[in-house]
Every structure is written in C-alpha cells, then in structure tokens.
C-alpha cells in the first residue's frame, strides 16, 4: 500500500476504534470490579473490623460509577439511580446466593461444607456472576452485564445470558458446557448437570423480541448433555430429564424422560 493509503487506513481504523472504545467499558476494570464485589460478599481473607467492609463497599461503588461514566451518556441513563438501586439489592443477591450454595451442599454428596461450595465450585461462581449481571441488566445497563457473563463463561465453561430468569435456589453440578439462553425461565429448586443446553429451536435476528428459549418449572432435574429447545417448550414441575435427551416439545409435571437407546455389553472369552 502507498504511504498516503496506509495513513488513510490508519486514520480510518483509529476513528472506528475510538468510537467503539468510548461505547465499551474496560474488560479489565469490569472484571476487577466483579472480583472485588465477590470478595466483599464471600471473603477468603479475615476481615477483623467492620470498617474494612464499609471501606470495601464504598470503593466498589465508586469503581462501578467510574466504569459506567467511562462509556455511558448520563443524559440517557441515570447513573446515580443505577448505583443506588444496584447496591440496595445487594443484600437480596447475597441471601439468594447463600440459598444457592446451601442447595448445592444439600444435593451434592461430594460437598463437605457450604463454604467449600462458595470458594471452589464453578457452578456456584457462574450463578453468582449471573445474579450480579442479571441485576445490572434489569437496570438497563448495556454491555457490562455481557462482559461479566462472558468472563464467567470463560472461567467456568457455563454460559448463562444475563437476561435469563432463574429463581432461587438453583443448582449447577460440574457445569462445563451448560448453555442457558436469554429468554429462558427457570423455577425454584432446579438442578442442571454438565453439558445441558436450554436453547432456541431456530436462530434469526427477527426473533430477538420473542421468547425463544424453554421454561423449566420448579423442582426439575436435567441430567448431563440434554438439549431442550424452543420458547414454547415447558418442562413441567417435578420432572426428571435423563441424560442425552433431545426435547423440542413440552412435558407434563411429574414426567420422567429418558432415552430408549439400548446399551449392549459383550464379554469376550479369554
């Protein structure tokens, strides 16, 4: 490329990138804020004075405000109101996460304590990030909730869209490969195992405002690698969906759904 064409191209790239940077929060700052908030809610280090908690929370509020101011136009969104409402909901988020952790401990025979669940279970971490990102999404904060959810996705292998509706308590076991779409609705006491997908039966931009993902009612267990698709698909309460099931239609409450493939085992003679 000639020198003037190179300079024109560089200028063009700069202007595009500048506009994108100005409309996007820093990924690093977002993750740092999230990590500090998680540490405030579930600290690994001993905090021997109440004032330390107060200082941590104040810093976290300031950091979130700075993140929002870095890419949002205050004339289009009331940042002070977002900050107030988010932190006003923090106690509820915390109590819900304690219920999630307790559910995991009660259901998983390998769990030795609720604290172990909180500090080491990827399913719990993914749920925690979801509940934080979901609240920001409810407050009409753009982009930041997706950055948080994609951070959790990369760290845990669990992909939960921040707009999904997930009641309390919720139990993810193992976690890797789970996908929960944006318009999914999940009730209370639902257990989901690794590799489960709650997805859309078709992907089209014109369906962006349509419910595309399944509804899972209370007290449902969905075992590993099952795929459930469609916005009109409802898994009735107290049902069990076996492993590797593929569903595109609703099932009644108290249903048990399993594959009919037969496993053949032959023992060779020595």
What are the SSEs and their pairings?
Layout: H1 3-22, H2 27-41, H3 50-71, H4 79-88, H5 90-107, H6 114-120, H7 122-138, H8 144-156, E1 159-160, E2 165-166, E3 170-172, E4 179-180, E5 185-186, E6 190-192, E7 197-199, E8 215-216, E9 221-222, E10 227-229, E11 234-235, E12 240-241, E13 246-247, E14 256-257
Parallel strand pairs: 1-4, 2-5, 3-6, 4-7, 5-8, 6-9, 7-10, 8-11, 9-12, 10-13, 12-14
Helix pairs in contact: 2-3, 2-8, 3-4, 5-6, 5-7, 7-8
Could you walk me through the main structural features you see in this protein, from its secondary elements to its overall organization?
The chain is α/β, with parallel strands linked by helices and 270 residues long. It folds into two domains: 158 residues, serine acetyltransferase, domain 1 (Orthogonal Bundle), CATH 1.10.3130; 96 residues, Hexapeptide repeat proteins (UDP N-Acetylglucosamine Acyltransferase, domain 1), CATH 2.160.10. The chain is built from eight helices and 14 strands. The strands form three sheets. The protein has a five-stranded parallel sheet. α2 runs antiparallel to α3, α5 packs across α6 and α7 runs antiparallel to α8. The longest helix has 22 residues. It is globular. The model has no long low-confidence stretch (mean pLDDT 93).
Key features of this structure:
270 residues, alpha/beta, serine acetyltransferase, domain 1, UDP N-Acetylglucosamine Acyltransferase, domain 1, 2 domains, five-stranded parallel beta sheet, 8 helices, 45% helix
């Amino acid at each position: 490329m000639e020198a003037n064409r190179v300079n024109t191209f560089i200028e063009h790239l700069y202007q595009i990138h500048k506009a994108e940077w100005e409309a996007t929060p820093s990924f690093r700052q977002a993750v740092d804020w999230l990590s500090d908030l998680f540490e405030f809610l579930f600290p690994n280090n001993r905090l021997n004075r109440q004032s330390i908690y107060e200082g941590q929370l104040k810093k976290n509020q300031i950091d979130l405000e700075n993140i929002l101011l870095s890419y949002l136009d205050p004339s289009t969104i009331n940042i002070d109101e977002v900050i107030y409402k988010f932190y006003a909901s923090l106690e509820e988020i915390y109590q819900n996460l304690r219920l999630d952790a307790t559910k995991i401990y009660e259901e998983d025979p390998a769990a030795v304590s609720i604290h172990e669940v909180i500090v080491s279970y990827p399913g719990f971490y993914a749920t925690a990030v979801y509940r934080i990102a979901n609240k920001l999404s409810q407050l009409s904060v753009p982009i930041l909730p997706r950055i948080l959810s994609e951070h959790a996705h990369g760290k845990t292998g669990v992909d939960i869209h921040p707009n999904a509706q997930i009641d309390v308590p919720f139990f993810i076991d193992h976690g890797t490969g789970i996908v929960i779409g944006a318009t999914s609705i999940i009730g209370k006491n639902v257990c989901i195992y690794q590799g489960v997908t709650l997805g859309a039966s078709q992907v089209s931009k014109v369906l962006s405002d349509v419910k595309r993902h399944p509804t899972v009612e209370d007290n449902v267990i969905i075992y590993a690698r099952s795929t459930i698709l469609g916005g009109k698909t409802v898994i009735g309460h107290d049902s069990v969906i076996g492993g590797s099931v593929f569903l595109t239609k609703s099932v009644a409450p108290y249903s048990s759904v399993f594959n009919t493939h037969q496993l053949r085992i032959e023992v060779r003679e020595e």
